[in-house]
Amino acid sequence: MRRFLLTMLTLALSGACAMFTIAAQAKESVKIVFIGPLSGGNSALGLGGRNSADLAVQLRNADAKAKYTYDLVKLDDQCKPDIGVQVATKAGADNGIIAGVTHYCSAVAIATVDTYHKFGLPVIVWGAVLPAITYGNDYPEIHRVNGTMINQNEVNAKLVSGLGYKTWVIIHDTTDYGKGHDEYFTKFLTQDGGKVLAHFGVGADQQDFTAILTKVKELNPDVVYFGGLTPIGVRIRSQMDKLGVKAQFEGTSGIVSDSYIEALGPLAEGTIAFIDGAPIDKLPGGKEFLAQYAAHKYGEPPEAYGAYAFVAANLIMDAIEKVGPNRKAVMDVLGKTKDHPSIVGPVTFDAHGQNVVPIVTAYVVQDGKWVVWQDSDYAKGKRKLVGGK
Amino acid sequence: MDPGVLAQYAFNGLMLGVIYAMVAVGFTLFFGVLDVIQFAHGDVVMAGAFVGLATFIGLRALGVHAPALAVIAIACAAALGMALLGALIARYMVLPLRAAPPFNTLLITLMLGSVLRELVRLFYPNGSNPQPFPRLLPAGALNFGNFTLRLDSAILLVTGIVTIVAVNLVVTRTRLGLAIRAVAQDSETARVMGIDFERVVLVTFALGSALAGIAGVVYGLYYNEVNFDIGLLLGVIGFSAAVVGGLGSIYGAIIGGFLFAALQTIGSVALPVSSAYNNVFAFAVVILLMTWKPTGLIPEKSSERV
Fold first, then answer.
1. What confidence tens digit (pLDDT) does each residue in A44-59 have?
2. How many percent of chain A have pLDDT more than 70?
3. Which end of chain B has fewer CB atoms at under 10 Å, N or C?
4. Which residues contact B220 (CB under 8 A, 6 or more apart)?
5. Chain A residues within an 8 Å CB radius of B141
6. Domains, chain B, ranges and CATH?
7. B positions 141-200 inside 8 Å of A (CB)
8. A-B interface: how many C-beta pairs under 8 angstroms?
9. pLDDT single digits (tens) A122-161
10. What domains does chain A contain, in order, with CATH numbers?
11. pTM of the predicted model, to two decimals?
């Protein structure tokens, strides 16, 4: 009996010692947050971003050299500013969350800058293009890896006016995002010699555009430019066809998504749009990113801004590896980012935390896919856009 | 202004108007028969659209591709499904509360509307995203100058008008309609006369909800898209239209529906402000109309005599 008890005690003690050693060797767990539109009309892009950020975290956790284990907290801002502020507050108030990969919708991103500043939570924006998010304030917490709509619209205006079109009608949503696009596109287009016949502001969840499009039909422009997001873009394009409005349709980064093409089918053909950066497979690290993404078998594609979410997550984790899980220290490190290598090329944040991204890529929908303009049949003259250009 | 463009505006307004009128007629029927506001009615339209969509997907999975058959099938599925839903709402939510102040029924149906919306958003596959609705009607258009008359839109307009007229005929020319009007006028006397009160209420709700189901399918076929929250604004607009026209009068509801659509169209294009304010304009005018004629443009003629 005594021998039995002695054996049991020894076993228990060695078990406990083993557990202590393992625990001592386990890495500290650090939380970072991802916020994007995971539901609603823009969810395709939000989910692409979420999966990409998750990929970055999983690859880092599989890396034995990493000092910490990362835990990605995923929050849904539903592309609504009031919900965005709620989840931003939730993330900011949780002291376990060290930094955030935040927002695709500009209207939400601009609404939450004050929240992040209040909580001292450093964030990197991965998809919102409104310039005021970084340039409208002096908060050291706010950074952004993707470009702004200023470059986008400059390139846009130059390209389409260069195609020979003369008159435009601009339809934009009434959020800061849509209004920003209206402002910058009008400015650059007028400089390039184009004429804007009318501007129409529409609600971000408006359903019926038949009245506006009837007026557009009356004005008979060469091109209809849409500054807004995919759900409205789909409705406008669909109702343009319904009313027989024969103009070329073009948009911004807000409609560059697979869900635009899926919803419209053949009507999407020939739509022109622009995004900051290059298509993922043409990015410096793009091919490996796509290979890893496929290997992890996510249910949704990375979409136009997934690569940026990936980069943002990695920048944050690199900072945490360097200075530890401390919000202020991470913020300081991020602020000093210069020529930091990433799959989108070297990242440098300027004084406002904005990554200087010189590339803007033009796309056109060809045969059910977004194709880079320069590579498309339209640019090569094999196919014609509306208006015969 | 170019007559073609004017015709286009008119046609767009008519399409919107017929959808609003269908919703408004439901509200007015329910108010007429039981003096209750069924505030989930807009969401019943949405549910009808989704039932139609689900039926289409089911038919396609079974290998049925003929569009004409599909249209009839989804319209019937939506109408019957919503008739059932309407009857259930009447049986379990409206009738039990008929002794309580009508405000309670308004509240409970308002909450039901929320529940319907969230059920679709959470449990329909990919429910929180807009769903493309199939194009089942013949394509093809007639061009009269600047006015493009699409065949599918014309069919939908005619369908909407025919269904409203049909409901009106049921209410004014059939025995069932007579029973409905009797209960609406004086439910106690109607009961004394041998009319089965509960059955009439159930049938009225079923009828109004079936109309809503068809409205949902018309909406889906017109916009080629439905999502879980179309019912919210539709319900508010339908209710306002019914009130402005005169709650309890079917003609009032029809007038109210088309009036609201006309106001929205004017607000979209004739005002100097952004077209996003078209609803603001339309509702503002409705408020003014109601202050001028509080009981509606066609007020209920019967008065309560004690």
1. 899 999 999 999 999 9
2. 96
3. C
4. B49, B52, B53, B133, B226
5. 244
6. 3-292 (1.10.3470)
7. 141, 143, 146, 148, 150, 153
8. 83
9. 999 999 989 999 999 999 999 999 888 888 898 899 999 9
10. 28-147+280-358 (3.40.50.2300), 150-276+362-375 (3.40.50.2300)
11. 0.80
